[in-house]
């Protein structure tokens, strides 16, 4: 059994991990903390970010009241004390500041991991700011989520039968990898290992691009003159396609910037194919249009059957 886990950023993913570990009895104590609450306490300001320290302290209190965590600390060095594992669960754009804070106060026995949706940016940040502690850092990404944010939306079932990708390098401690793998398996997830850049390419195509398209489509439609008419008649298809445009804008802003190369590469391919479809519609090339739709339906049906 794990003695103590510290979660930095007790939101949807951090909170769901805490709930799942509590439900499985895998951990004796879960401590929550927040860099923004800590910075407010110490009077520090995160450059470029509006301080929301009050809100962050309230989030931690809420997490305690909901019994998601056992206790919380608004001082990072106190929160990570004697922790076996520290889980960083904040938007990927905030990882640098977290690693800088951790480098000063985490013991060399403590294993550090994260849940960020991009892995190259996080891994490079850990190498840069954690120094020698970076061998104890295991980059991880649970392939599970919903369009809601915050601890209120956290669920202990979120990772059941889902995959968690870990992207250790040859420098990552083998013990750290096995501890993080075992932690995630306790949540009901299957853990698989992947090369860092391969992770970012795959997720750019299967997750980052669809989110980008959903945000962009809803934004375009909402700016059309007859927008009230459009949304009034929007049916199930529109809801299905755009559900993910209700996701947290800051989180997705950070992901787009952190994984820009892989996203731009797949966006270029997608734009090229969309242009071909546009041309086919202009030329009334019915065979081309039908071929695209038949291929797409076949691929999606196969993919969905494999997920059952
Ligand atoms: P969330 O519900 O908004 O929680 C994020 C937490 O991070 C908040 O509790 C907040 O804590 C803290 N935070 C936010 N901005 C911060 C900043 N600028 N500096 C320091 N801390 C900050 O988000 P989430 O969905 O759990 O996402 C967390 C991570 O999981 C992200 O890296 C995301 O890429 C990854 N992820 C998300 C999903 C998904 O579907 N949502 C799936 C897989 C992975 P305080 O307010 O207490 O400071």
CATH architecture annotation of the largest domain: 3-Layer(aba) Sandwich
Radius of gyration: 21 Å
Tell me the strand percentage band. 5-15%
Number of strands: 9
Q: Going across the major beta sheet, what is the strand order?
A: 3-2-1-4-5-6
Cα separation of the termini = 32 Å
What is the CATH class designation of the largest domain?
Alpha Beta
* Averaged pLDDT: 94
CATH superfamily of the largest domain: NAD(P)-binding Rossmann-like Domain
Shape: globular
Q: State the low-pLDDT regions, or none.
A: 47-51
- Subunit arrangement of the protein: single chain
Listing every helix as H and every strand as E from the N terminus to the C terminus, the arrangement reads EHEHHEHEHEHEEEHEHHHHHH
Tally of structural domains: 2
Q: How much helical structure, as a percent, in the residues?
A: 40-55%
Reported by name, the CATH topology of the largest domain is Rossmann fold
Helix segment count? 13
Keywords:
308 residues, 6-phosphogluconate dehydrogenase C-terminal fold, 13 helices, 2 domains, alpha/beta, binds NADP nicotinamide-adenine-dinucleotide phosphate, 13% strand, 3-stranded mixed beta sheet, Rossmann fold, globular
Task: Report on this structure.
The protein is of the alpha/beta class and 308 residues long. The protein has two domains: 2-194, Rossmann fold (3-Layer(aba) Sandwich); 198-307, 6-phosphogluconate dehydrogenase C-terminal fold (Orthogonal Bundle), CATH 1.10.3660. It is 54% helix and 13% strand. It has helices at 12-24, 35-42, 53-65, 76-79, 95-103, 120-130, 174-185, 196-223, 227-232, 236-242, 249-258, 260-282, 286-307, and strands at 2-8, 27-33, 71-73, 85-88, 111-114, 137-138, 140-143, 163-166, 190-193. Strands 3-2-1-4-5-6 form a six-stranded parallel beta sheet, with helices on both faces. Helix 5 (95-103) runs parallel beside helix 6 (120-130). The longest helix has 28 residues, at 196-223. It is globular and about 65 Å long. Residues 47-51 have low confidence and may be disordered. Residues 9-14, 34-37, 49, 55-56, 59-60, 89-92, 94, 115-117, 141-142, 145, 149-150, 248, 251, 255 line the site of NADP nicotinamide-adenine-dinucleotide phosphate.
């Amino acid at each position: 059994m794990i003695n103590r886990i510290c979660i930095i950023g007790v939101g949807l993913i951090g909170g769901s991990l805490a709930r799942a570990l509590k439900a499985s009895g895998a951990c004796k104590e879960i401590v929550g903390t927040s860099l923004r609450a800590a910075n407010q306490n110490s009077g520090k300001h995160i450059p470029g970010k509006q301080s929301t320290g009050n809100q962050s302290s309230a989030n931690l209190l809420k997490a305690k009241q909901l019994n998601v965590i056992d206790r919380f600390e608004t001082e990072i060095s106190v929160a990570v004390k004697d922790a076996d594992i520290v889980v960083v669960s904040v938007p990927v754009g905030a990882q640098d500041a977290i690693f800088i804070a951790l480098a000063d106060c985490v013991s060399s026995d403590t294993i550090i991991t994260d849940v960020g949706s991009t892995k190259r940016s996080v891994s490079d940040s850990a190498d840069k700011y954690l120094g020698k502690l970076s061998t104890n850092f295991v980059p991880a990404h649970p392939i599970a989520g919903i369009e809601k944010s915050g601890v209120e939306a956290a669920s202990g079932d979120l990772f059941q039968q889902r995959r968690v990708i870990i992207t250790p390098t040859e420098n990552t401690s083998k013990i750290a990898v096995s501890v993080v793998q075992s932690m995630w398996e306790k949540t009901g997830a299957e853990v698989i290992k992947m090369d860092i850049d391969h992770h970012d390419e795959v997720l750019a195509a299967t997750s980052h691009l669809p989110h980008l398209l959903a945000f962009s489509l809803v934004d375009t439609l909402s700016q059309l003159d007859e927008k009230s008419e459009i949304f009034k008649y929007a049916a199930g298809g529109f809801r299905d396609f755009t559900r993910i445009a209700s996701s947290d804008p800051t989180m997705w802003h950070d992901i787009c910037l952190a994984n820009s190369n892989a996203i731009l590469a797949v966006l270029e391919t997608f734009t090229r194919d969309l242009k071909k479809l546009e041309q086919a519609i202009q030329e009334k090339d019915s065979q081309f249009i039908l071929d695209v739709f038949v291929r797409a339906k076949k691929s999606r049906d196969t993919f969905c059957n494999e997920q059952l």
